[in-house]
Amino acid sequence: MRVVVLVNRYVPEYNAGSEVTMHRLARALAGAGHEVEVVVTWHLSRHGYHLDGIPVHQVSERDADDRIVQLSPDVILTQYDEIARAAWLRAQYGIPWVQLIHKDDENSRAALRLSAALSVFNTHWIAETFADHPGRSLVVHPPVNADEHRTRPGNATTLVNLIPDKGVEVFYALADRFPGRAFLGVVGGYGRQDIRTDRPNLRIHPHGPAMREVWGQTRVVLMPSLHESYGLVAVEAMVSGIPVIAHPTPGLREALGPGGLFADRNDLDAWAAALAALDAADRYEAASRYALARAREITAENTAELAAFVSAVESVIEDRQ
Length: 321
Known about the structure:
This protein is α/β, with parallel strands linked by helices. It has two domains: 2-140, Rossmann fold, CATH 3.40.50.2000; 146-298, 3-Layer(aba) Sandwich (Rossmann fold). The protein contains eleven helices and 14 strands. The strands form two sheets. An eight-stranded mixed sheet has the order 3-4-2-1-5-6-7-8, with helices on both faces. The chain is elongated, with a radius of gyration of 20 Å.
């Protein structure tokens, strides 16, 4: 089976959760013995490259249709802005497409009105939001390879992606409230980054795919996110037993589970109290044990979901034949 992944952004230049997830799904298909190639219509800093053995073609939007037809895919795997192109290619050339749905917005609802062969929701709560969708679907949580993230935690309190929607103001306010504590701000893959270097207890880590380096400097992860359809960063951190304090978005509640640590992003005192509570050795140890156990649950779930995903994509081809 030949699969073309059609996206407008891709790793390693754009390491947001959706793009990381797409690459991990592409790896799962390649690992099952299928031919997988990626067509990227944006971020044209390279002419092409290979990532984990998968060819990545960077083309202009004008040339994307011709390149995809030349690759002669049995199925297209896509998300976000390129769903419309996949629908057009289906109408013109009969190529079925599989779409990833990451958000509970009107763009997702519009995508679900199209004739995708399969819709893949990234969480149960997103799937439940679109429970009236009549088409074929399944849930695949963003997969995490524990071996790529597992390390010995460090001592910093960390926020990944320094933008308002991720709670950067909460992060800097906590750095001011705890001047004797180390804070680490990680530059994100999208959004206007609010980088401040005027605090002696705060370091800035550059954007990049090597998140194990971040976890090796981190003791606690903060996620005061306004929107978070899942919480891939949280799961990656928990692999190393790093506790996560989060705003209770539906996605973060699903990722962290019933024992997660939550505080309202608008209540700075609650965040300060949650962070200070983890200074007690017994509280931190309990939170760390929970993080490890939750990460093991999720990675086991990932294995089953990836197998179901590969099988579902293969069945799309069988149905076409």
